[in-house]
Write a structure and sequence with these properties.
Helix content is 20%, strand content 29%. By secondary structure, it is an alpha+beta fold.
């Protein structure tokens, strides 16, 4: 294996991005397995023009750029895989299937516990790093900590473009 240069070594920004998107995947996996419990519900904001996003054209036209969906009472057929999720939601009483790649997500929030994650847009190179295998996300439930009212932003972890030159 060739030696890595200083800029490629320990890319903590990518490690954090991967770990936090893993939290989103694991939360969705738990909903598939057990359903939503108590008052938990999710607000998920995503880029509608991101490669791999599938939603009806009228929704893309109505929400150019970004769209927020709510997974609470009326959603169906939630499926999660290593790099995307699909879900059935109703829009004006018309059921629609949406496919959302995990890298397209910009905000994930569970207002019932004042928890939110905010993501920065990924480059195509970064997106290759956001692919999960089931064993990578085996987080012990006893180790989870709830932090009230905290939004985690990755800006402080990212390298600035000027630092790369």
């Amino acid at each position: 294996m060739p030696p890595r240069n200083r800029e490629d070594a320990f890319r903590y920004d990518k490690m954090v991005e991967r770990a936090l998107r893993g939290v989103v995947k694991q939360a969705l996996d738990e909903v598939v397995k057990d359903g939503l419990v108590e008052d938990h519900h999710f607000y998920i904001t995503f880029f509608t023009e991101h490669p791999g996003v599938k939603l009806p054209n009228y929704l893309k036209e109505r929400y150019p750029g970004e769209m927020t969906i709510v997974l609470q009472h009326q959603f169906y057929d939630l499926e999660v895989d290593n790099d995307k999720f699909t879900v059935m939601l109703s829009f004006n009483n018309v059921p629609e299937r949406l496919t959302i790649p995990l890298p397209a997500i910009t905000i994930f929030a569970d207002p019932s516990v004042n928890f939110a994650l905010q993501f920065q847009p990924l480059t195509e190179e970064d997106e290759d790093d956001v692919h999960f295998e089931a064993e990578e996300l085996d987080i012990d439930k006893d180790d989870k900590q709830k932090k009230k009212g905290e939004v985690v932003s990755l800006d402080s972890f990212r390298k600035k473009d000027k630092d790369k030159t």
